[in-house]
Amino acid sequence: MNKDLIDWPTFISALILLLAVSIPLAVFPEAGKEFVNMANDFMTGNFGVLYLIFGLAAFAFLIFVAFSKNGHIKLGDKDSEKEFGTISWAAMLFAAGIGSSILYWAVIEWAYYYQGPPFGIEPESNEAINYAPAYGIFHWGPIAWAIYTLPALPIAYFYYVRKKPVLKISEAVRPVLGRLVDTPLGIIIDVLFMFGLMGGAGTTLALGTPMIAEGVHDITGLPVTMTMKTIIMLVCTTIFAISAYSGLRRGIKVLSDVNLWLAVFVLGFIFIFGPSLFISETTFTSLGLIIDNFFKMATWLEPFANVRGFTETGFPESWTIFYWAWWLVYAPFVGLFVARISRGRTIQEMIFGTMLYGTLGSVLFFGIMGNFGLHLQLTGQFDVVGFMNENGAPAAIIAILNQLPLAGFMVTVFTVLAIIFLATTFDSSSYILSAVVQKEVKAEPLRWNRLFWAFTLCLMPLVLMFIGDLQTLQTASIVAGFPVLFIMGLLAWSFMKASNEDLRASKNYQSPTIYINRRETRKKRRSALEALEDKNPDD
Ligand code: NM2
């Protein structure tokens, strides 16, 4: 056990913040819940607009960068080849950024929109049916993936172009903050990022566990109790702890591969044995609806709620704002990961790749799984909405799958897939958390450190599950995500500043793919500095 490698101030501060939040929540669940919900109302009520502005700004920023000179910079040297082929690159980035929540929401999200549509649309009306399958895709679509990609820009840039192995968010904002990064401000940035990720993971695990529990109940007949859920959570944690312990090559990669093939199987099965034509048509129509209403959906708040007879739906707070916050807290982590696997690509390829393949993955999940359920509802084969309102969403998800042929088998596969999906997100999260609390990462973070954060990551979800209704769970991401909003701004700025500096100093500025030669740019900068010093000899 090499304690010298640990960055103790960051380690301890993160732990203290986590305990300071979880312990009071666990000891006073009722008051805790009230407080969390109050914080949520305050955040979304007052700052909701910031989240929506941020989402759209991230999207616009990435498109801008992709088409600018900076987008043509290659991540690596002139002769560095792409480290991963495009398909495995796309699969890995999807598996890292997406956890079991996609199984949850892809199956059931439409049912919420069907009953509680936006824009003052009549619930359960034909208009509501149009939006129900589309909105889920929007919330997991290009804006969401843009939020994920933004932090990857500075991190990948520093990693492959400036060749500084940065595994800390604080290091990625050094071009903007300079020496301030070495003050407690640097620690605060890393701790806030860690706390955000733990909040987002809290939402994920607290949503995923009851769904897995319903699956286990369906397979074994055991009743769903708090004990059962706690055991499931511990078993899942143990699986991803083992995976994180075994490291990137063995644990994490093996699980990701299994994850991919199992997901392809489940999607293929539902598509073939479900209403294939309805699924294809509805998905396609949804895409058109989203393109047509893109800005309306991306900007919709309810400024007139409760005046002049506008009724308040709470839709923006419960959904779009919540979602952007949730993607936000995961973003720096996914950025670290996407950066790691993108050597040899240009910035532009990285941007379009994540936005395109990420969205495509979401479209497949929501299009196939969601429309299978919607079809059951509309044809009257199974009243999903009625069942959900009575028994809760996790039970409704399993009930929908029970309408498939070979139901018992499919529920089992789905449950296993949910566990693996959880594990692939959580093993890499604990991997990154442990990397952030080390001064230096030699090949991989220390093993005990990885194990420690794997179990720590479980703390907040456990507490949340005890107190949690859906709103409280969603809140964890929103509240923990607020500071990350500002960190994202710094990350974008930092990327522009560093890459512009290098571009200015670079010789091959005009060629279509730009390779930054570090020795050359450094020399230029040094002589520029010397020239400055010559001018002001007194300084
Ligand atoms: N996002 C993609 O729970 C998960 O699937 C992890 C969730 C941010 C909505 C990420």
TrEMBL record:
<keyword id="KW-1133">Transmembrane helix</keyword>
<comment type="similarity">
    <text>Belongs to the BCCT transporter (TC 2.A.15) family.</text>
</comment>
<feature type="transmembrane region" description="Helical">
    <location>
        <begin position="451"/>
        <end position="468"/>
    </location>
</feature>
<dbReference type="InterPro" id="IPR018093">
    <property type="entry name" value="BCCT_CS"/>
</dbReference>
<keyword id="KW-1003">Cell membrane</keyword>
<feature type="transmembrane region" description="Helical">
    <location>
        <begin position="143"/>
        <end position="162"/>
    </location>
</feature>
<feature type="transmembrane region" description="Helical">
    <location>
        <begin position="87"/>
        <end position="108"/>
    </location>
</feature>
<keyword id="KW-0812">Transmembrane</keyword>
<dbReference type="GO" id="GO:0022857">
    <property type="term" value="F:transmembrane transporter activity"/>
</dbReference>
<keyword id="KW-0813">Transport</keyword>
<dbReference type="GO" id="GO:0005886">
    <property type="term" value="C:plasma membrane"/>
</dbReference>
<dbReference type="Pfam" id="PF02028">
    <property type="entry name" value="BCCT"/>
</dbReference>
<feature type="transmembrane region" description="Helical">
    <location>
        <begin position="394"/>
        <end position="423"/>
    </location>
</feature>
<feature type="transmembrane region" description="Helical">
    <location>
        <begin position="260"/>
        <end position="279"/>
    </location>
</feature>
<feature type="transmembrane region" description="Helical">
    <location>
        <begin position="48"/>
        <end position="67"/>
    </location>
</feature>
<feature type="transmembrane region" description="Helical">
    <location>
        <begin position="227"/>
        <end position="248"/>
    </location>
</feature>
<feature type="transmembrane region" description="Helical">
    <location>
        <begin position="7"/>
        <end position="28"/>
    </location>
</feature>
<feature type="transmembrane region" description="Helical">
    <location>
        <begin position="351"/>
        <end position="374"/>
    </location>
</feature>
<protein>
    <submittedName>
        <fullName>BCCT family transporter</fullName>
    </submittedName>
</protein>
<feature type="transmembrane region" description="Helical">
    <location>
        <begin position="183"/>
        <end position="207"/>
    </location>
</feature>
<dbReference type="InterPro" id="IPR000060">
    <property type="entry name" value="BCCT_transptr"/>
</dbReference>
<feature type="transmembrane region" description="Helical">
    <location>
        <begin position="474"/>
        <end position="496"/>
    </location>
</feature>
<keyword id="KW-0472">Membrane</keyword>
<feature type="transmembrane region" description="Helical">
    <location>
        <begin position="321"/>
        <end position="339"/>
    </location>
</feature>
